[in-house]
């Protein structure tokens, strides 16, 4: 039986050699490490904080073969053959998770359950019929269009029924994978920040503390790849999504996954918490990362939406947000890192389906590294381009958005809140000469100064008051309140100005060949 507490693991303290070095201990990294160590490869996982401390712990853990961005849209972009492979991969991922749970006896509340795609008030049934037809062509079995499914707890209306979806608690699952990796002779090092990745034979991964890992293969599974400066980040867009959980009487809402048809859609499921209550977990209100400051209103709207539909919803128990990396066609990027040495791989672009995509990454990368063919490879190829015009337009709009945010933030005077108006545990950005400064007043009333310039490519970070972090609006880097990097692609923190540092020195990470992170894709800049 896997434990559910979080055991601490030591940092890497000396140079080592392994077959595979995996950077990132979320579901992608640990699935890959688990499947490869079961095949007898010597595996080491490096995690800058703790197992599961990244985006995997923030997911609402819908295990769906229903596609977030709709099969009808994917088919227009990539065609029916790839769509069938895509559907097969998500279906297989749910089965694989179920199998692992059984084999390792992980107590993570995994279960199979139905999913319902239901109409948002402004949409017509045509939309459901179009998706039903495409999902049938994708090969999903057992789909049914229903006028009004007999679910308890809310009036769902016309819906598309998906059988055999799943849900689980991801943290115990990750701990189960971790224990299996270690049982198979693999190693997991926590508090081990990666500073530089060099391809070659062997590849080398240098840690911030100094020790170097030599490996035949390196897999970068860090939500956004920290080994790419530019190219992959122009093919993805970081979005934030919000979630709340509310107590409801046990079984007051039928156990199922629910999604509405909005583009920034609502998603709902339940989770038992004790003999008498379930948690109703509701998400939505997505927006581009680092580009709004109305997080409190978003949580408020989510609660209002829930109360209008679920009469038995009690108090809000938790609220949180998570980051989603969106790709133009809604499929992740898993495979060889474009333009890099052939033994460097990435897994990124979760597109709101991180749990199935993370498991697909494990299955696909195990095949890549073992030299086996896998029919899903072309669907997830990081070097792929969309086939249809609409996806190109979306990509162009995302790029234009990054450029306009860059200019707007550099030209603006600063945030509406001035430094002397800051409350405790709050941050704001102010102009200082030609540059921008990120001020954070901590819980003791002490004010901390960092450069507000993201060290990845120089965009200006924004305060996220819901999470008490700094978010970059361009490619998804995130920094804690005091400026330490939490989420890449930045690999270093915001430049500290505590000791009279000069805010006008732009602290962009080195882009030369001897850069902290090699820039195989970044040759265009
Ligand atoms: Fe690229 Fe900040 S994440 S500039």
Note down, in words, how this protein is organized.
The chain has about 525 residues and is α+β, with helices and mostly antiparallel strands. It is built from nine helices and 24 strands. The chain has helices at about 25-40, 70-80, 80-105, 125-135, 170-185, 295-310, 355-370, 375-380, 390-410; strands at about 15-25, 45, 60-65, 110-120, 145, 160-165, 185-190, 195-200, 205, 210-220, 235-250, 255-260, 265-270, 275-290, 315-325, 335, 345-350, 425-430, 435-440, 445-450, 460-465, 470, 480, 485. The site of FE2/S2 (inorganic) cluster has 12 residues, from loops.
What are the defining features of this structure?
525 residues, alpha+beta, eight-stranded mixed beta sheet, 9 helices, 25% helix, disordered C terminus, binds FE2/S2 (inorganic) cluster
Topology:
Blueprint (H helix, E strand, L loop, with lengths): L15 E8 L3 H12 L4 E4 L15 E2 L7 H8 L1 H25 L6 E8 L6 H13 L6 E3 L12 E9 L2 H14 L3 E3 L4 E5 L4 E5 L4 E9 L16 E13 L7 E4 L6 E6 L4 E12 L6 H15 L6 E11 L6 E4 L7 E5 L5 H16 L7 H4 L8 H23 L14 E7 L2 E7 L5 E5 L10 E3 L4 E3 L6 E3 L4 E3 L38
Parallel strand pairs: 1-2, 1-10, 2-7, 4-12, 10-17
Antiparallel strand pairs: 3-6, 4-6, 5-6, 8-9, 9-10, 11-14, 11-15, 12-13, 13-14, 16-17, 18-19, 19-20, 21-22, 22-23, 23-24
The site of FE2/S2 (inorganic) cluster (FES) has 12 residues, from loops.
Short description:
The protein has 525 residues and is an alpha+beta fold. It has 9 helices and 24 strands.
- Characterize the main sheet: 9 strands, mixed
The parts where pLDDT drops under 50 for at least 5 residues are 510-525
- Overall shape: it is globular
Please give the alpha-carbon distance between the first and last residues: 50 Å
Beta-strand residue fraction: 25-35%
What would you call the structural class?
A: alpha+beta
Helix content: 10-25%
Q: Give me the count of strands.
A: 24
* Heteromolecules bound: FE2/S2 (inorganic) cluster
- SS summary, helix count: 9
- How would you state the average pLDDT, rounded? 88
Radius of gyration: 23 Å
């Amino acid at each position: 039986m896997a434990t559910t507490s979080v055991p601490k693991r030591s940092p890497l303290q000396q140079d080592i050699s392994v077959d595979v070095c995996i950077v990132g201990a979320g579901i992608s990294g640990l699935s890959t490490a688990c499947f490869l160590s079961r095949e007898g490869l010597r595996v080491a996982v490096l995690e800058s904080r703790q197992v599961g401390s990244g985006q995997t712990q923030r997911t609402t853990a819908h295990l769906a073969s229903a596609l977030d961005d709709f099969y009808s849209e994917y088919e227009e972009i990539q065609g029916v053959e790839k769509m069938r492979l895509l559907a097969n991969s998500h279906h297989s991922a749910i089965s694989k998770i179920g199998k692992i749970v059984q084999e390792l006896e992980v107590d993570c509340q995994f279960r199979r359950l139905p999913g319902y795609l239901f109409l948002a008030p402004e949409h017509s049934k045509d939309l459901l019929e179009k998706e039903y037809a495409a999902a049938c062509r994708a090969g999903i079995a057992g789909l049914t269009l229903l006028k009004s499914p007999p679910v308890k707890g809310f009036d769902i209306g016309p819906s598309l029924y998906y059988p055999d979806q799943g849900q689980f608690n991801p943290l115990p699952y990750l701990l189960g994978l971790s224990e299996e990796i270690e049982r198979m002779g693999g190693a997991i090092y926590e508090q081990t920040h990666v500073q530089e990745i060099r391809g070659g034979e062997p590849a080398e991964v240098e840690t911030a503390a100094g020790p170097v890992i030599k490996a035949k293969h390196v897999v970068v599974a860090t939500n956004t790849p920290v080994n790419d400066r530019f190219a992959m980040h122009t093919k993805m867009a970081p979005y934030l999504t919000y979630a709340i959980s509310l107590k409801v009487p046990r079984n007051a809402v039928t156990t199922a996954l629910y999604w509405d048809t909005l583009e920034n859609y609502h998603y709902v499921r339940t989770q038992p918490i004790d003999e008498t209550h379930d948690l109703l977990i509701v998400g939505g209100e997505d927006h581009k990362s680092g580009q709004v400051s109305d997080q409190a209103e978003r949580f408020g709207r989510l609660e209002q939406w829930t109360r209008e539909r679920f009469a038995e919803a009690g108090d809000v128990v938790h609220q949180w947000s998570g980051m989603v990396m969106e790709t133009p066609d809604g499929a992740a990027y898993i495979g060889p890192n474009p333009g890099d040495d052939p033994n460097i791989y990435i897994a990124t672009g979760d597109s709101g389906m991180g749990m199935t995509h993370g498991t697909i990454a494990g299955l696909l990368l195990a095949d890549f590294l073992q030299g086996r063919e896998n029919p899903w490879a072309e669907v997830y190829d990081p070097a792929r381009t969309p086939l249809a015009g609409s996806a190109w337009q979306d990509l162009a709009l995302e790029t234009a958005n990054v450029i306009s945010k860059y200019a707007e933030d550099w030209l603006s005077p600063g945030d509406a809140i001035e430094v002397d108006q800051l409350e405790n545990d709050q941050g704001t950005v102010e102009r200082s000469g030609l540059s921008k400064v990120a001020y954070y007043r901590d819980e003791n009333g002490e004010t901390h100064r960092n450069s507000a310039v993201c060290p990845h490519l120089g965009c200006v970070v924004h305060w996220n008051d819901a999470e008490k972090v700094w978010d970059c609006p361009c490619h998804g880097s995130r920094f804690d309140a005091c400026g330490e990097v939490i989420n890449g692609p930045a690999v270093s923190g915001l430049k500290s100005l505590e000791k009279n540092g000069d805010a006008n020195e732009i602290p962009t990470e080195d882009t030369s060949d001897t850069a902290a992170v090699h820039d195989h894709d970044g040759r265009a800049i």
